[in-house]
Amino acid sequence: MARITLERVGHRYGHAPYALEPFDMVLEDGRSYALLGPSGCGKTTMLNIISGVVRPSEGRILLDDRDVTVVPISGRNVAQVFQFPVIYQSKSVYENLAFPLRCRRWPIARIKARVAEIADLLDLSGRLGKPAWQLTVDEKQLISLGRGLVRDDVAALLMDEPLTVIDPQMKFQLRRKLKAVSQKARHTVIYVTHDQNEAMTFADEILVMSAGKVVQRGTPQELFERPRTTYVGYFIGSPSMNVFDAEIGAGGVMIGGTPIAPGGALPSGLPTSGLRVGIRPEYASLAQPEDSDTLAATVVGVQDHGSVRIVEVAIGTARARLKLGRDIAPPSAQARIRLRRDKLCLFVDDHLIAAGI
Amino acid sequence: MNGSGFRAYKLAFLLPGLLILLAIILFPLIFTIRVSFSSWDAITPGLNNAGGINYAKLFGDVRYWQSLGRLSLMAVGTVLLQYLLGLGLALLVWREVKLRRFFRVLFLVPMMTTPVVMSVVWRTIFHESLGPANDLLGMVGLGPFQWLTSASTAIVSVMIVEVWQWTPFMFLLLLAGLLSLPREPYLAAAIDGAGPIRTFFNVTLPLLAPVSIGALIIRLIEASKIMETVYVLTSGGPGTATETTGYYIYIRGLRDFEIGYASALSITYLVIMIVALTIIAKLLVKVFIGERT
């Protein structure tokens, strides 16, 4: 268990542009972090730098206060779960779990006790004698995790999209188990994923990445309520945030000529161009008769997602999506909608300058 | 569509393939079986009906069974050596990227040369008084050895040439296998703290098992037909010390013209080989992969 410090760490492959632009970051001991971003955004590069697979072209990495920048994988005391389960095919489940301890020359009695403890934690106790190749994919993934957990010298537990090859039904259970187990073990966990649901449910803090940069770091709630850029707004949430081009007029912030929050407190010195307004589909709703500040909208389409319906509407020339509960009847052609003023995000040049107007 | 009934057009589609198969595989085989039940030889050529006399004779033919025993020793011995050497070489150049191209070509030279030609070259090398083998060993105070004229060394000489010629094939197959291995198991082993030896036995060897089995079986099938090397190097001698089954059948059939008897030997040899190689293949799978099949 350790605090991970990255000092001006950056990486480029050969002379290519930065895969990871130089940045500073501290990951606190015992917390779980998710690296979230689309393919090619640098999240795996960052993970590989921490695990020691890749040596960064710039900067230093410290585990607690130990500089491990040039230390190879074996000397770093990290554990890693890969995208595809990695097991020792020729060994039993017990031998798989005992392998890291045998490499560390633990006495047999101690290995036995430790493996039993971890197998119990992972619900693998009943399968210890089985050949590992006979297990299902999700159980194999648990073995990969278990080989990290049995060790007592693990500074950080790294997971590289560990649920990619798991069936959707098993995914949910395995994710819960990964979370429970890693919380119990109180490891510093870094979890790489491009699935925002996994990131939101798994981690204490999420680092959203884009094109080699950490765009925003925060709790799932912060990312949802106050996305620092429109990119984060798009990336987090399903469906993504509605973002409209906006201007400042007589009635305050206007979308397509319609004021959306008359009389709102606007930050001073707003520029005249590059202004955009964002709102989560969860915070847009059909207006009730007594509501003020409503907008006229034309219904373009309705998607049924089971528990909710996504209603797509046109407000002037802008498009927006609303998330409606199953019990609310979707409007037919014309509707009036209401955007929660306290949840409006104001962006200038795609950067958040105010949340709530 | 109703696929169960016989349709003439189905036969029409199958027939060309079936006929070719019959012509090139089954006909020679069936013809040989037929010949083995005849007493076709130099004096009374032609197919007659001799019953099982050739097979009865074969059971008492000590020279035949000895050649089979010798062949087993040579085949298993050389193939094992080829595997160990090939794997060793492949592991050496596996990570070495710089000279890989050069080594690949260099190692392939023995495989690309004609066995008969190389056997002649080796026969010259092994020449007792004129060959460089004894010259070179003499410089470090060893020998001279009777490479091809003593029973115990002649078989070793034949095996050396076989190993020399076919190790590149093993090397090539195993190198291709190594290069196709995934990277993650090695990272996982490094993370688990395994050293190079543990990594080799727990990661490389199990992952390479399918390729190993394939290479060993292909080579065993090939090695069970050792013929040219023996023919050129020792002609089966001294005495019958290096006579393999293939060479013995050749002597019986094409030098003594006992066509009927040689056919019986061939058919017996074929059956023994099929049974032996099937068992060996099963054993190899068990050794390399254990119960997981």
Automatic annotation (TrEMBL), chain A:
GO MF: ATP binding
InterPro entries for the chain: AAA+_ATPase, ABC_transporter-like_ATP-bd, ABC_transpr_MalK/UgpC-like, Mo/tungstate-bd_C_term_dom, P-loop_NTPase
A Pfam short name: ABC_tran
Positions of the ABC transporter domain: 4-236
Keyword check for Repeat: no
SMART domains noted in UniProt: AAA
Key words, A-Z: ATP-binding, Nucleotide-binding, Transport
Coiled-coil region(s): none
Origin: domain of life: Bacteria
Family of the protein in this entry: Belongs to the ABC transporter superfamily.
PANTHER family associated with the record: ABC TRANSPORTER ATP-BINDING PROTEIN, MALTODEXTRIN IMPORT ATP-BINDING PROTEIN MSMX
Descriptive protein name: Glycerol transport system ATP-binding protein
From TrEMBL, chain B:
Membrane topology: Multi-pass membrane protein
Places the protein is found: Cell membrane
Family matches, as InterPro entries: MalF_N, MetI-like, MetI-like_sf, Sugar_ABC_transporter
Keyword Transmembrane: yes
Domain ABC transmembrane type-1: 68-280
Pfam families: BPD_transp_1
Keyword Transmembrane helix: yes
Principal localisation: membrane
Membrane-spanning segments: 12-31, 71-93, 105-125, 145-164, 171-191, 197-218, 230-250, 262-285
Top-level taxon: Bacteria
Key words, A-Z: Membrane, Sugar transport, Transmembrane, Transmembrane helix, Transport
Family: Belongs to the binding-protein-dependent transport system permease family.
Name recorded for this polypeptide: Multiple sugar transport system permease protein
Source organism (scientific name): Kaistia dalseonensis
